[in-house]
Amino acid sequence: MGTWHTRPEAYTAVPALFTGVQSMNNQELGDVPSLRMPWIVPAVTGLTATGFSVALDRCEAEGGIVSEAEDIGFIAITGGHGVCRKTSCFNAKFIVQHAMTSGHDMGWDDKDTNLEVVHFPEHFEDNNVIAVASKSTRNGDNGGWLRILDVNGHGVTIVVDEDVSLDGERAHESEDVGVIAFSEPFAF
Q1: Total H helices, total E strands in the chain
Q2: Using the 8-state DSSP alphabet, how is residue 56 labeled?
Q3: 27 burial class (0-12, 13-18, 19+ CB within 10 angstroms)?
């Protein structure tokens, strides 16, 4: 079951959205680090300039029980680019964007035939780029999470990864993403 989040004043366009599970209320924790169960990630649907729905997604993962609510954190940022002028940012350039991807399959199994690249609207001069990306749709039957394979001054190369606990297939439909990138490391 999802929760619909609305913003009293709509954005002028669909914002870049970043989500993450913030609590571990359902996790089977032990003394020895191991694969945590149940495996859950945020699933976003219906992202518009006025709101979105978010739920917990088990993907196809086996094991564990989801019986308690979890906290899902999110940040929604208006798309754009510019220069951070705070003294501590050292004039780092930034880019924030909601990106509709190509529509081609973009899963881990698809990466050898189709690399999905989100191109920046403005290029950075060097390749010290730091980027974060997050899925902002939940398409297809399998869920999954976003992985950045490469980042450079022109864009980020991404795939959606899936668990293999029920089957070994990791192909995935196209997903929209939120991306934020900075031209260089900085302290804020």
Answers
A1: 0, 12
A2: E
A3: middle
177: its two tokens: 């993403």
- Reference 75, options 145, 134, 159, 139; nearest CA is 134
Q: What is the distance in angstroms between the CA of the first residue and the CA of the last residue of the chain?
A: 37
Say how far apart CA 59 and CA 50 lie, in whole Å: 27
Measured distance CA(94)–CA(142) in Å, rounded: 32
pLDDT band at 182 (very low <50, low <70, confident <90, very high): very high
Q: Which band of pLDDT confidence, cut at 50, 70 and 90, is reported for residue 89?
A: low
**Rounded distance between C-alpha atoms, residue 58 and residue 45, angstroms:** 15
Peptide linkage before 185 cis (omega within 30 of 0): no
Tell me the per-residue pLDDT of 151-167, one tens digit each, with 9 for 90 and over. Answer: 999 999 999 888 777 77
Asked if residues 157 and 117 have their Cβ atoms less than 8 Å apart, the reply is yes
Spatial distance between the Cα atoms of 78 and 180, rounded to a whole number of angstroms:
11
Tokens standing for 4?
A: 């619909």
**Are the beta carbons of 128 and 184 closer than 8 angstroms?**
yes
CB 177 within 8 A of CB 146: yes
Q: Quote the tokens at residue 27.
A: 């996790």
pLDDT digits 0-9 by tens, 48-61: 999 999 999 888 77
In three-state secondary structure terms, 93 is strand
